[in-house]
Each structure stands twice: as C-alpha cells, then as structure tokens.
Amino acid sequence: MSDSREGLLTIDLQAVGENYLSLSDHLAPGSRCGAVVKADAYGLGMAQVAPALYRHGCRDFFVATQAEGESLRKQLGGEVCIVVLTGVRAGAELECARAGLIPTLFTLQQLRDWVAICERAGVAAPCAVKVDSGMTRLGMTPEDFDLLLADRALLRAADIRLLLSHLACADEPGHPQNEIQLRNFNRAAARLRTECPQVQLSLANSSGIFLGEEYHFDVARPGSALYGVNPLPGSSNPVRPVVELSLPIVQKRHVSSAQMVGYGATQSVAAGSWLAVARGGYADGILRAQGGQGCGWACGRRLPMVGRVSMDSTTFDISALSDRERDALENIEILNREVTVDEVAGYAGTIGYEILTSLGHRYYRRYKSGAAI
Ligand SMILES: *Cc1c(COP(=O)(O)O)cnc(C)c1O
C-alpha cells in the first residue's frame, strides 16, 4: 500500500462542490450547471468527485468515453443524465443505449446507425448531436447538418435530446471567434428546434460561462473550473483551488563548491548553497518542461527548482531558509493555494488542464470532504 512517504496529493471535494455552486450562481435564470468528469475527473478521481458533485445538486454529467460513462452509471445510478462526448463506437451502440448513456453524434451516418440499431433491438435511444460552430474539431459539418434537417423521417425517428457545440476561444473573451460561434450555434439551434422543439442546448465550457448569459443556454458544461483552474486567464481566479501536492524530501545537501545540478548539467549552484532532493519526478506528472523554472513552497516562500526534473526526483534550492527552518524541513509543496495549477502550467509552457491530468498514481491521495449538503 502506498503512503504519504511517496508524496501526498490532497483533493478538496468541498472546494469542488463550492466551485460547482458558484458556477451555477453565475448562470442565467433557467440555465443549469452540468459537470464534465472525463479523464477521471481531470485526474482527480471520478469515483470521489462525481458523488461530491451529485451531493451539490449536479444531475448532468459529461464523460469522454463509453467506459467512463458505464462506470459513472454504476456509481450514480439511474437518475442522472450521462452524455458521452466522443460519440459511440461502431458496434457498441446497444451496450451504450442499455447503459442509459447519451452519445454525442457528429455524422449523419452515425445518427442513422444509432437510430436503426436501437430501433431494431427495441431499446430507447436518446442522443445528443454536436454541430461544429467554428472550432473545426468534432461536430457535424454544415453539409451534414443541412442533410439532417432535410431528413424528416430521421428527425422523427431520432430522439435528439441535446444539441451542443464547443467554443475554441472561450478563455479569450475579446476573441471575435466567440461571437461567430455563438451566431452559428444560434442559427443551428433555431433550425433544429423548428423540427424538434424539445431539444435542449449546450455551448459553454468553464470559460464560456464568463462570456455572458447569451452563452449559457439550457446546460453549461464546465470541467476545469470545477477543479480550480482559472477560467479567466490573466484575471483573478473566481474559483477555489482544489489540489495540494506535497513531496517528501529524501536528501538535503550542502554544496561546498560551485556545482552543476542534475542531468545534462544545465544549471549551476554557488558554493555554500543548500539543496533538497524531493521524491517525485516526471513519472509523477511533474512536467520536465518546467525544469529550471518551476518552484516549490515551504516556510511561506517559493523555493526554486534547480536543474532538470528527473523521472523520480526533483531538486530545489533551499538556501533561502534559515538553519532552523532547513533542519525541520521534511516536505516541499509543489501545488497549493499559493503555487496554483495555473502558475505551474506557466512554468511548463502548458495549461492547468495538463497539470491536473498528468498527476501521477504513486502519490497517496487524501480526499477532504466537508459536511454533506
Ligand atoms: C472537456 C470539455 C468541456 C469542459 O471544458 P472546460 O474548459 O474544462 O470547462 C466541455 N465541453 C466539451 C465538449 C469538452 O470536450
């Protein structure tokens, strides 16, 4: 069994719940807040995170794969709505429908197959359709969407519950692509609703919630902001941090003459420096790209990483600590309230999402949950 000697990853489920409520509060009246729990809830553990969201009132969950959907269905039972964002595998339609999962379909052929296969088996087949409103990733092309609208028989046979689309630039509020996508989505929604008046609409991810009420529609789909990533890069973070990561120090050493540190001898430290080598490296999700730039946190201050991040260890310059502080030091934090996932992402040239989804599996994971609501 692993224990905190391998590093302690603390996941604050109370903060996840509060973030869910605060994002819900941001929504226009009549819009409800769903939650994206794909990729094991962005690496934080869907088995713990999803029930916490459920306790805070969430009933609309989005996962990436059918396997994630099936395991979520087992955890949460039949009452919640589970949408699989990357569709349905050809041949797995009936498994998907029988698990009560709503696949997001992006081609006309996929929709035809889904309807035909489920109809033949007599299985209810609610589905979601995703249109490409300008991101040019997943989504029905305008040509397929036109064909869909012209196919009255298919529209009658299909049980399309949700129309969704995804924003490419929601984290840049001034980006003209947002308005273009909004306009395209509204147009597609109006056309589909003349045929299927019941269909619900969903456009906003975390950052999309902050673009204004016209982006909210029926269901919002935040992921990252639930987990503490700032949905407003460059402005103060409206959500609470969720993760803390503390690494045990396995060696402290005094450097008596100037030395080069770590693989490739990329960085030097001056004579008289103190170094701490912590357990935890790139195999644990401490991205190697932050070597020489990242930092840890101890005794109320940032302490620079030195040299490259190794597979299992990372070295910090702790010369700034007093003798007393240094002697007492046992752990160094690399994610906390001060050193946020967004800050760390900046050192590694990436985004907070990748920091979270890279978090390793050798840490001892502690879940903090507040009082049940
Ligand atoms: C991942 C994902 C989301 C959540 O995005 P965040 O930026 O993490 O809030 C929403 N919708 C789709 C289609 C996604 O793939």
UniProtKB/TrEMBL annotation:
Domain Alanine racemase C-terminal: 242-368
Residue ranges crossing the lipid bilayer per the database entry: none
Function: Catalyzes the interconversion of L-alanine and D-alanine. May also act on other amino acids.
PROSITE patterns the UniProt entry points to: ALANINE_RACEMASE
Protein name from the UniProt record: Alanine racemase
Biological or metabolic pathway of the protein: Amino-acid biosynthesis; D-alanine biosynthesis; D-alanine from L-alanine: step 1/1
HAMAP family: Ala_racemase (MF_01201)
Active site positions: K38 (proton acceptor), Y263 (proton acceptor)
Matches recorded under InterPro entries: Ala_racemase, Ala_racemase/Decarboxylase_C, Ala_racemase_C, Ala_racemase_N, Ala_racemase_pyridoxalP-BS, PLP-binding_barrel
N6-(pyridoxal phosphate)lysine sites (modified residues): K38
Keyword Lipid metabolism: no
Keyword flag Protease: no
GO molecular function: alanine racemase activity
Residues reported in the UniProt entry to bind substrate: R137, M311
Catalytic activity: L-alanine = D-alanine
Family label: Belongs to the alanine racemase family.
Cofactor(s) recorded in Swiss-Prot or TrEMBL: pyridoxal 5'-phosphate
Enzyme class: isomerase
E.C. code: 5.1.1.1
Coiled coil spans: none
Lineage: Bacteria, Pseudomonadati, Pseudomonadota, Gammaproteobacteria, Cellvibrionales
Keywords recorded for this protein, A-Z: Isomerase, Pyridoxal phosphate
One matching Pfam family: Ala_racemase_N
